[in-house]
Amino acid sequence: MSKISDAISEIQSLEALSRGPGFVNRLHPLGKLLLTVFFIAVTVSFPKYSLPGLITMAVYPAAVFLVADLSFGEALRRLRVVLPLVCVVGILNPFFDRTPVLTIGTLAVSGGVLSMVTLMVKAVLTVLAGYLLIATTPIEEICRALRLLHLPKVFTVVVLLIYRYVTVLLAEARRITQAYSLRAPGQKGVAWKAWGPLLGQMLLRSMDRAEGVYDAMLLRGFTGEFAAGREAKLRPADILWPVVWMLILLALRLFPVTSWIGNLFV
């Protein structure tokens, strides 16, 4: 039950963080969404052996962490489950590509090891970019940006409802597990024989709650689309922030910046 409560608390704290008064939070959601997609596309476009150039892409998440006053340690704590999973994508590369491609002192680094590290760095950077978007932009604003890109209305409504009411489902799960623990004192976890009835009860309670939520939405004038997000006019910062960063990221991708920096110290 404590894990469910922690999950609910994490979602609520992340939602509160996205509604903060910071500079990045006040930017137009469309620019932040396009910049995030552009950053991910440029990051994954690096070849499998281009680790030095890929590391320079970390300048964008580092800058957002500083400008938005976000905690990097808190981000790693919240992504502690996702990051290990995405980092194991290329864990078998060292076994298939054993050709030495780099020498560090007397140590020869194979192409498999280098490509594995490159894939891990790509995974970490892309996950951090998605986290920064969610941590600085409320879900209503993200869905509004998706609608401005003419994505299907059904898709944006489903995304918004899933994110908004996942806490309702978690709260139902917390009530059921709490009731079970009160009826089975001293027992650790839920017995496997009780999983079927408990899941059935959760399904029925979720369906009842969904009907109540939908009736409330209809009474409040829901017609199939949310009028979510604040309709604010574009400011110069809303355009300059994504455009300047796109140019910086494009320059880091096209030019050997790391080689130029290395030549300055040689």
Describe the structure.
The structure is a single chain. The protein contains 13 helices and two strands. It has a two-stranded antiparallel sheet. By secondary structure, it is mainly alpha-helical. Strand 1 and strand 2 form a beta hairpin.
In terms of structural class, how would the helical and strand content be classed? mainly alpha
* Succession of helices and strands: HHHHHHHEEHHHHHH
Which strand order do you get reading across the main beta sheet? 1-2
Give the averaged pLDDT, no decimals. 83
- From the spread of the alpha carbons, the general shape counts as globular
How many distinct folded domains?
Answer: 2
Count of alpha and pi helical runs: 13
Q: Tally of extended strands? A: 2
C-alpha Rg, in Å? Answer: 23 Å
Task: Report the major sheet.
Answer: 2 strands, antiparallel
Query: Runs with pLDDT <50, length 5+?
Result: none
Helix coverage percent:
55-70%
Proportion of residues in β-strands: under 5%
N-C termini distance: 58 Å
List keywords for this structure.
single chain, 13 helices, mainly alpha, globular, 266 residues, two-stranded antiparallel ribbon
How is this fold's topology laid out?
Elements: H1 2-18, H2 29-44, H3 51-55, H4 59-67, H5 72-78, H6 82-87, H7 93-96, E1 100-104, E2 107-110, H8 111-136, H9 139-148, H10 153-183, H11 195-219, H12 236-254, H13 257-265
Antiparallel strand pairs: 1-2
Helix pairs in contact: 1-10, 2-8, 2-9, 2-12, 9-10, 10-11
